[in-house]
Structure formats: C-alpha cells, structure tokens
Amino acid sequence: MSNADSKVERPLFVALFAGVGCFLLSFVAMGLAPWTTLSSGLEAPPGMKDPYHDENGELTAAGRGRKIYMSEACWHCHSQFVRPVANEPWRYGPKSEAWEAMFDVPNTYGTRRIGPDLAREAGRRTDDWHFAHLLDPRSTVPRSVMPPYPWLFDRGPDGKPQPGEKAKDLVAYLQSLGSAFKQQVEDQVYPREIRITGSPVPSDLLKERGAELYAHHCVGCHGENHDGVGRAADFLKPSAANLNTRYLPRGEVYRVLYQGVRGSAMPSYHDMGERQLWALAQYVSDLGQPVRAAARVDRADVLARGREIYSKRCASCHGEFGEVPQAMLNMRPAPKDLRTRLYDTDYLIGVVRMGRPGTGMVPTMGLSAEEEKDLAAYVRSMFKENVHDR
C-alpha cells in the first residue's frame, strides 16, 4: 500500500471509529441510563386499578370519555405531561410519574400546549365549570381560542342545552386525570390560608386596570352587568355571585381571588400577580359601594329578635358571631363568613326563602315576613369592615 493510500484511509478510519463511538455513547446516555432511573418510577401506588375498565372488563365513564377525548382530537391542543423543569410543577402540579400512563394505550401526552396541560385536572375545577366550558369555552374563559362542542349536548325540556352522555363521560375522564394527586393539586390551586399585609392606595388607574381584568377573566360567569348572569349561568351551581347585592372590602375580594372557592366554579387567581389582584379587588369592591352607602343601624329590639332567630336557625353553620366553625370549613363550598361582607337586605331575604342551590344553604322554613327582615338586619349587623384586611 502506498503512502498516498494510507493517508486517505487513516482519516476515514478515524471518522468511522468516531461515528461508532458517538452512537454507543448516545445509546448508553439516552437509552440505558434513563432506564435505570425510569424503573424506580414504575411502581404504582398500592391498590391502583385500571380506571378505564371495571371488574367485568367493560368501559367505565372515564374509559368512554378517554375515547371521546381522542376522537375529538383534544390532544392536539392539550398535553398531559408535567415536566420536572421550567417551574412546571409550580404551574400545573406534581411532576408526571411513569406509572400514571400504565393503562394509557395509546398515550395522550401530546406535544403542544395551545390550551393548558391537563395531567392534573382532577380537583382543579368543578363538573359544572367543565360543562359550561365545553359548550361555550368563552363563557368561562373569555379569551379562549378553544372551539365549542355543542354536539356533546342535548336539548332539555325547556329548550336549553344540557350535558349529554358524551359530555358527562368526557368530564368524568378529565376529572380522573391525576386523581392520585388530587389533594395536592387542590391545596396548591386553592390555598387554605393567606396573609394580607397591605393594599395599594386606591386610584382611578388601578380601577381602570381592574375593569380590564374583569372583562378578561370574570365576565363569562358574573356577567357584563355584574349580576351573576353571564354566558355560563345555565350550568353553574352554585351560581356566580351577583356583585351588585353585596359589599366586600378590598382585602376580602383579594382573599377570594387568591384562594378561590372550593366546590364552586370560582377558581383561584393566585398566579395573576399581586398588582393585578389588587386592581381587580378594587374594581369588584367598588361595585358594592351603593350597598355600603345604604347601610343603617337597626333598632336594638329588631337586632335582638334577629339574633334569637339566627341562633336557632343559622349559627350551627355560620357560627355564633358569623365566623364559620372549623368543622364547617370542609363543606364544598363552605358557608360564608358573615363578618366579611355586607349584603343587601332583599338579597338576604331571598336566600332565606329560597336557599342557595348547589350549596348547603337550604330554605329557612316557617318564618314570617317580619321575622325574615329581623334576621336579615341581624346578619347585616355582623359585618366588620376589616376582618381580613390586615
């Protein structure tokens, strides 16, 4: 072999060796090494069962819903995989584990996030929120780009749409996603306690920004007129609050926005940011100023009669002095702390008569019109301006 041939073959040999070496290195680094860590995450919690089939092998509601999820191509816009990077656990919940997909064939990890990741949907929202969102996405998320799915709904006797079997199955599937982490997600999405340390000085600019945020986040449920009659109203139980019938101090609005209301369609907006929350809090609080301005001090005999009725009919849930007992805080949704908000008299009388569908508040039977007024007067007297604004 000539020296010229040797000079040509030597670089080729080196290139071949380097190529084979890189392949082997990548195989070890990307194939074998991950397997050693993956195997430790394959152990499912004790007693975990196939959520998509019952003991007879028949599809469950979640199993049928999963088929609908795939047939409607939901995975084109929603992923189901919380990565352990870029603060994803902070945004969505605990990172995904390998064993979670052991029954998912094919998997629905997805590759795009036009909509939010759904891997931790269990415990995040209520069924009624999902139904409203499926029929009219912009009723619950005013700026959503998600298309509506009216063919999943039937017409009720009153002509209004109601969830069909496919809609119910799809929601059952969504509520099953991440069910092993449901409590963790609820505690993350709906913080149980917060400390309010102060608020910015009210200003027209702050209120103007609050109005913009209301239009972007709240109008679908609470309505353009703030009366709780938004586009999602037909599905929500309990219904969205009529913000014209109550006054909430800014600190209380901030608390509700930050914590959300478990057991209702009211989500937590704690990831919105403090400045934004205070702006929205000022806007909502100002809506109740007419109720506050109309407040009066009722006669002592009226309050005494109202207190007697309250002690017999209301104190077990709302507490003797309006502060909800600890045992009642686990209700979904929990009774309202009557010290933190001032209600319109007519609204209170309506709730006393009709209850509050979707909550533990039932009609209070057997009261005369005068007794209803006395009870409403006493409830209004419980309001304290700055209970949580500290």
**What is the fold-level CATH name, i.e. the topology of the largest domain?**
Cytochrome Bc1 Complex, Chain D, domain 2
User: Mind telling me the CATH class of the largest domain?
Assistant: Mainly Alpha
How many discrete structural domains? 3
Could you say which overall geometry the principal axes of the C-alpha atoms support? elongated
Rg calculated over all Cα atoms: 28 Å
Order of helices and strands: HHHHHEEHHHHEHHHHHEHH
**CATH architecture heading of the largest domain:** Orthogonal Bundle
Q: Percent of residues in helical segments? A: 40-55%
The poorly predicted ranges are none
Please name the fourth-level CATH homologous superfamily of the largest domain.
Cytochrome c-like domain
**Number of β-strand runs:** 4
End-to-end gap: 90 Å
Count of individual helical segments: 16
What's the pLDDT, averaged over the residues?
89
List descriptors.
single chain; 390 residues; mainly alpha; Cytochrome Bc1 Complex, Chain D, domain 2; 4 strands
Structure in words:
With 390 residues, this protein is an all-alpha fold. The chain folds into 3 domains: 61-189, Cytochrome c-like domain (Cytochrome Bc1 Complex, Chain D, domain 2, Orthogonal Bundle); 204-292, Cytochrome c-like domain (Cytochrome Bc1 Complex, Chain D, domain 2, Orthogonal Bundle); 295-381, Cytochrome Bc1 Complex, Chain D, domain 2 (Orthogonal Bundle), CATH 1.10.760. It has helices at 3-38, 61-71, 88-92, 127-135, 137-140, 165-176, 182-189, 204-217, 219-222, 250-259, 274-287, 289-293, 300-313, 315-318, 345-354, 369-381; strands spanning 153-155, 161-163, 246-247, 342-343. Strands 1-2 form a two-stranded antiparallel sheet. A two-stranded antiparallel ribbon has the order 3-4. Helix 4 (127-135) packs across helix 6, helix 13 crosses helix 16 and helix 15 (345-354) crosses helix 16 (369-381). The longest helix has 36 residues, at 3-38. The radius of gyration is 28 Å and the shape is elongated. The model has no long low-confidence stretch (mean pLDDT 89).
